[in-house]
Amino acid sequence: MKVISTIAELRKVLDEHRAAGKTIGLVPTMGALHNGHASLVERSVADNDITVVSIFVNPTQFNDKNDLRNYPRDLKADCALLDKVGADIAFAPEVEEMYPEPDTRVFSFAPLDEVMEGPFRPGHFNGVAQIVSKLFYAVEPHRAYFGEKDFQQLAIIREMVRQLSLSLEIVGCPIVREQDGLAMSSRNMLLTAEERERAVKISQTLFKSLEIAVNNSLAYTKAYVEDAMNSTEGFRLEYYQIVDGNTLQPIENWEDSSYIVGCIALFCGNIRLIDNIKYKEEK
Length: 283
Hints:
Elements (H helix, E strand, L loop, with lengths): L1 E3 L2 H13 L4 E6 L5 H13 L2 E6 L9 H6 L4 H10 L4 E3 L3 H4 L18 H4 L3 H16 L3 E5 L3 H13 L5 E5 L19 H23 L2 H13 L4 E10 L15 E9 L2 E10 L3
Parallel strand pairs: 1-4, 2-3, 2-5, 3-4, 5-6
Antiparallel strand pairs: 7-8, 8-9
């Protein structure tokens, strides 16, 4: 596996592959890789001739400087995992390489970015769009892979591709969970042992809500999840929204959509965690 740190070298290598008629898959990451990331890479390896994995902690999508500073980084371990699962190129640039000058582009994804994460992380999705579009221009992949744990981000990236008229396929991949059900996240390694034990209640509650939804209203189901989170010591719930899976707009009744997703964000101690569950699958 090649480790590349400049866009110029990356383009040179990929142009040779393109000239040979090879398809290219991209998995954008911020490093601190786990089995959830590995599943994205494995999907790309299966679908494409060449798989590029970017490892870059993007400063423009962080609202909290402490969060940016504390975000876990371990390039050596990341590269070992990528080599094991068959990635061809790890693209690990410095901040100056991706942002030789400030990126002043302002994207509008309304109403997708006005709900859920939007009010709590102003500017976050603009930063995501800045870096992901830069990666798309640098790599020019045939396909790019994103996890469904970041459900709102996935919808916004699809909208960005549409707005920029980019010619690539966005592939969403299912959430990968720990054995006890906790959604895999790079932030999980920042939890204390006690917080990690407590955090499993998030997924347990979401899975239980699927059963409750069968015979109860949407409002009752939503209240069940909110009450369970608010009554758990050490949790601070930011939101639990049950939304249309395409528009991301909140709905009031199970009959309002054929694709329904519940999305949650909360703090477990000082660590912010997100998860989601599908009440109705998209056909």
